Amino acid sequence: MILSILFAGLGQLYNRRFMKGFTFIIVELAFIVTLLESINYGLWGLRTLGTIPGVDHSIRLLVFGVLSLIGVFFALSLYIYNVVDARNQARKIQNGWKPMGFRESMRTFYDHAFPYLMTFPGLVLMIFVVIFPLLFSVLLAFTNYNLYNSPPRNLVDWVGFENFVNLATVPIWQDTFVSVFSWTIVWTVVATTLQIGLGLFLALLVNDPRIKFKKLIRTILILPWAVPAFVTILIFSAMFNDDFGAINKDIIMPLFGGDGLPWLSDPFYARVAIIMVQTWLGFPFIFALFTGVLQSISKDWYEAADVDGGSRFQKFRHITLPHVMFATAPLLIMQYAQNFNNFNVIYLFNEGGPPVRGQNAGGTDILISWVYKLTFDTNNYSMAAAISIIMGLFVSGFAFYQFRRTRSFKEEGEI
Length: 415
Known about the structure:
The protein has 16 helices and no strands. By secondary structure, it is mainly α. The protein folds into 2 domains: about 1-160, no CATH class; about 165-415, MetI-like (MetI-like fold). Pfam families: BPD_transp_1. Its main location: membrane.
């Protein structure tokens, strides 16, 4: 173990594990020769974000710094594994174990390490597709990267928790964040609950044995799901137009008179409209999901309830609803998480409008669409990253808590 601490692989050579020892030696030499200088430069850039305006590019240095952190993590993991492996091998040798031959070592390696070798490319891909952007966004939230601090002309500086403090203390940020966050919660709960409730009601209705033409009705109710969502949203956006939309011109004005309702110019009516649009978009999937679950419930349960004199409501409460929720609870939780970050319907319907006085977000903007505007319209990247962290923590905490309360993460023997 001491030899492996001094230089990776020496402990394995001392234990007569020559192939593993030479592998560790080659890996450490390659790291020292090819990556040590680059990682040192990346860590310097991560610490300083550059020192010379116009020469040092702070964001590029931040990218190199994140890559350096990932490289250091891999290097430390291999180094620790090398030390632990040497210690374990030494203990086995002290207990009378003899090193295996080359063929036997290769066979044992294949039996135990093959699954890890097959999953390693996926792990590397996940690191650079998921973890790297996540780390970059998290670090960006602690800088002052915006339109006025953009490299290479200007340097970006570390500002700590200043962006989070501004969200809580600066009036325009505070008012906008509270308003947008509150509407995001209302939007998520109301829109998702309505689409789930409508889907469940229609599934129960179609599953009733007294209903005729079930196949035709199911086909019609699934049709909104078959149409691309962005096409449906754009059509509804035109239908809800204040001036020439069919909702005002052909329905409200002929029946009630007046000029119709300000669907796109008043925040309240715009929110009502967008909730109705999401309910229309979301209920077909819930309907199809519940239909399959309802057909899998044994009729013996209902027959036993009839014998005991159970009412329709009692059968729904004690038989239908528990079976449906047991089978679909994780998917329903994902519906809430998905609508919390449902950017498409918000942006395509009216781009988050209408404008609200005293705020830098629109009346129907949710957190994700507000982050989009901060990033691409005002180039306030650091504040957008700070809000993204809050969003991620909120959604992750909610999903983790709900999943732990369901049986979706329990092993079969624990249920």
